[in-house]
């Protein structure tokens, strides 16, 4: 299992990249973690409950202000010359590269909210894989947001920052995501998972027992369906809620679903069934964790996977294979995570068996299925932060 670059080293390397690319040192840097979600999938945009945590993999942004009203953006991932966008009010604020719109989107949304940055140069570095379902987009947005706040002199509370970042993702990256990822990245707490009520944004942290480890297993695939299908699932939920006479599926229950089963039809019934049952599973999962019953919590993770696979239809063969293999290797719980159609699974494993679990899973997958996933242990860390260079 290769260990990721440590956050301190990542900050140093980002600072060095900045100095080399822009021929001047940065004055500050922001680091934003990725997230995993233990349970509560595809419910955030129906006002549901989710249980994510910020993880020890980060996106780092180093920055300095510029005289000219331009944004110059460079990323170690693309390693191309900096993308340049004119920030003068008369110019349309849209970046030529898709990835850069995550950054410009944040700058633009802060400007629209009255927080102007002036010109700035930003260099991005990361040890958080993108496309793995670990919220590298929300991390990129949040690191940018912290820099924009510092340069504009307006500091927002973490939850407001999360909302602004989500707006940027909707408007500039064109992804109609919920609020879970941005909340986890901006409100993460070391050694804790968070139950987030996506209606009120109230957060209830809880700890995981030390004898349990969290293992991410990245399929390293992303099926082309991923983006369009997310919006379709969201629309299905809206239609189902309409038929059920409610704004959000959070406000209904399985009994009401059964009563309207005929009107809903097979597909919408199953979509709504996933959302309603998943919200209950989040409550049961946290209760099981609090009462020291990880076995029950693990079985709820597996039930969540089955529901996402069969009712919500957002899994894929590679994710299903990993979950089945994890069950055979005696994971306490295993499920797909994030939007679906690729990305990663999250697994709860006894800490004493974690090396054996990851080694066996990767080896067996290669031998029995002919492809090689990447498995790594993650731990819960604090939210995105800013550090100024002296
Ligand atoms: C993506 C979105 C989140 C959430 C998950 C599914 O990660 O960004 O808002 O909807 O999918 O739970």
What keyword list fits this structure?
alpha+beta, Ribosomal Protein S5, domain 2, six-stranded mixed sheet, four-stranded antiparallel sheet, 11 helices, binds alpha-D-galactopyranose
Mind explaining what this structure looks like?
The chain has 390 residues and is α+β, with helices and mostly antiparallel strands. The protein has a domain at 4-206: Ribosomal Protein S5, domain 2 (2-Layer Sandwich). 43% of the residues lie in helices and 23% in strands. The chain contains eleven helices and 13 strands. Strands 5-4-6-3-1-13 form a six-stranded mixed beta sheet, with helices on both faces. The chain has a four-stranded antiparallel beta sheet with strand order 10-11-9-12. Helix 2 packs across helix 3 (136-152) and helix 3 (136-152) crosses helix 4. The longest helix is centred in the last third of the chain and has 30 residues, at 261-290. The chain is globular. The model has no long low-confidence stretch (mean pLDDT 95). The structure holds alpha-D-galactopyranose (GLA).
Low-confidence runs:
none
CATH topology of the domain at 4-206: Ribosomal Protein S5, domain 2
Which value, in Å, is the CA radius of gyration?
Answer: 21 Å
What string, H for helix and E for strand, traces the elements in order? HEEEEEHEHHHEEEHHHHHEEHEE
Shape: globular
Mean pLDDT: 95
Q: What is the correct CATH architecture of the domain at 4-206?
A: 2-Layer Sandwich
The proportion of residues in beta strands is: 15-25%
Number of strands: 13
Bound molecules: alpha-D-galactopyranose
State the helicity in percent bands: 40-55%
Give the class from helix and strand content and strand pairing.
alpha+beta
Main beta-sheet annotation:
6 strands, mixed
Q: What oligomeric state best describes the polypeptide chains here? A: single chain
Assigned CATH class of the domain at 4-206: Alpha Beta
Q: List the strand order in the largest sheet.
A: 5-4-6-3-1-13
